[in-house]
Amino acid sequence: MVGPRLIAGKHVGGMRRSIGRQVRELEIEGFTVFPSLLGRELIFRLKEQLRSLPTQSTTYSDRQHYCHNAQWSDCTDAISLVAFRPITSFLDRVFGDELICTGCTYARTEPGYPGMALHTDSQPYGSRIFGPSSSSPRLVRVLYYLDSLTSARAPLKVVPYSHLSLHSDANPYRRYKSHSDSVVVTCKAGSVVVLNQKVFHSVGPNRSRSSREMFAVSYRPA
Question: What is the pTM of this model?
């Protein structure tokens, strides 16, 4: 089996792509990357606020901690990202409709994290994991990375185009340990990934000596 390919921020020579090209990337490939959108000071404040949230460990590893429904917390800088204009203006183009935020999650991945199975966030026939919000036929997750993603530090793994497949292997409730077409996405701290809920993706192992923090915001069209 061929190993995953490495995609460093999905931009060439540091050049940003046009909005039209990024819309196409999201629609066709299933994800797109906005490199280095958040400044250093904002990242510092976000970490300080989000680390105060009560977290719980995932069922499969005590090296990943998360807090759902962070939109109801008093983390003011994190909540302000729900209306972060560079992203909401992009999603205005994507959906052509008013936006509804369906939830926010803070996640911290510690050294020693083993990684997770490839999965989708789409649960069109109902979900005991994500609740009714994930049954929306159109939904994206916006991932704000507060630490740099490297191939060793809990990188994002994606199977491009997997959301387009009509094959039974693309059943959104399936899980895979690996896939020959997966790519590893790396980017600098402050970068943002917009992900189609139907695309297969996962978090890779954290083989580094430092944790990786992320704040995710989910949206659907009204």
Answer: 0.92
